[in-house]
Design goal:
The complex is a heterodimer.
Chain A: H1 5-27, H2 32-38, H3 40-57, H4 62-70, H5 72-93, H6 114-136, H7 145-163, H8 165-171, H9 174-197, H10 224-252
Helix pairs in contact in A: 3-4, 4-5, 5-9, 5-10, 6-7, 7-8, 7-10, 9-10
Chain B: H1 2-21, H2 25-45, H3 49-74
Classes of the chains: A mainly alpha, B mainly alpha.
Chain lengths: 253, 80
């Protein structure tokens, strides 16, 4: 370790200064709304979202309404970024399929640990149910596609660690996962084109005639549940694929 | 409530310093996981449950796992 002492102390000072700034901001947090109110344009947008979000989007969860309705095109871009990232990781890291030994795959990624196995048996069903709950209630309660998908993906990684990759592959077959991953983006684009065909902009929710229902209903809020489920599946498959990629390489050596 | 925020913030600062100062990479990863967990609690206290959920799942769970997997791949734990 030939770190120069000067560089190290400089970095420590820098980090300390950053944290001091953050502490000042948090201590001064009662003043922040006042500052925002002085900025007229920002305040107008935020006020508009808070006042009109429920009637415009039908989603009780305002954050979800903004992400998947007002800014649905941004979300499509984010999903594309995820897709591109996984593709790049697969291309760079994955070795040739022919060199892979089928015998190794059975116990791939498995940790021989009794505590882990027993805790996984207890936790994973609960985590699955909670993940599905977060995704399906994305327009009603906090959370949404990204959080729910991350919870589902984390629970599937846990099963890989406890029972091996072959077990997780039985729940989520890799061949089907790849198709599902691509279909999900196409689903969002198709939902967007419904707006175009009814003579409205791309990804229009209420005006292009989706079923809105009552605010607070599980089925309703136009295409928000559809997009939330699509994002959830996308994030889950991405996380699981990345994790399996790392484990696969680890077991090869 | 303000005091709890401050205490958690101090924990976070200690974790962040620890990540930088520890020589052992595995310890650094575990400290980083603790950092994410405290951060999730802080998000919850700052009334951002969406962000807290994502932070707890991705920051404390998946990132830690990926870091440990990568550490195992590059064998960073042997050449300290």
């Amino acid at each position: 370790m030939n770190k120069s002492v000067n560089g190290k102390s400089f970095i420590i000072l820098f980090i300390a200064a950053l944290w001091v700034c953050l502490v000042v901001v948090v201590l001064g947090s009662p003043n922040i709304p006042h500052c925002i109110e002085e900025n007229v344009a920002y305040s107008d947008t935020a006020r508009y979202y808070i006042d009109h979000s429920i009637e415009d989007t039908g989603a009780v969860n305002v954050v979800s309404g903004i992400i998947t309705d007002y800014r649905a095109f941004d979300t499509l871009g984010e999903v594309t970024v995820l897709f591109t990232g996984v593709t790049a990781a697969l291309v760079t890291i994955k070795k040739n399929k022919d060199t892979e030994k089928p015998i190794e795959k059975k116990s791939k990624g498995k940790m021989e640990n009794r505590i882990l196995t027993i805790i996984t048996r207890t936790v994973v069903p609960l985590a699955h149910v909670y993940g599905f709950y977060v995704i399906l209630h994305g327009h009603l309660s906090p959370g949404g596609g990204f959080s729910g998908g991350a919870i589902l993906g984390a629970s599937l990684i846990l099963t890989t660690l406890a029972f091996g990759q072959a077990y997780t592959d039985k729940i989520l077959p890799p061949e089907k996962t790849k198709i599902l991953e691509s279909l999900v983006i196409i689903l969002i684009v198709i939902v967007g084109f419904i707006g175009v065909f009814s003579n409205k902009p791309f990804l229009t929710n209420k005006a292009s005639g989706f079923y809105m229902g009552q605010a607070g209903d599980l089925i309703g809020a136009g295409f928000i549940p559809i997009i939330t489920i699509a994002i959830g599946i996308k994030v889950m498959t991405t996380v699981v694929n990345l994790a399996h990629l790392m484990i696969e390489e680890d077991a090869d050596e | 409530m303000e005091i709890i925020n401050l205490i958690i913030l101090v924990f976070i600062i200690f974790c962040a310093f620890g990540v930088y100062l520890t020589e052992n990479l595995l310890n650094a990863i575990i400290l980083f996981s603790a950092y994410s967990l405290f951060m999730a609690v802080l998000w919850l206290l700052l009334r951002a449950p969406d962000v807290a959920l994502t932070e707890a799942a991705i920051g404390a769970g998946i990132t830690t796992f990926l870091f440990v997997a990568v550490l195992g791949r590059v064998r960073g734990d042997k050449n300290e």
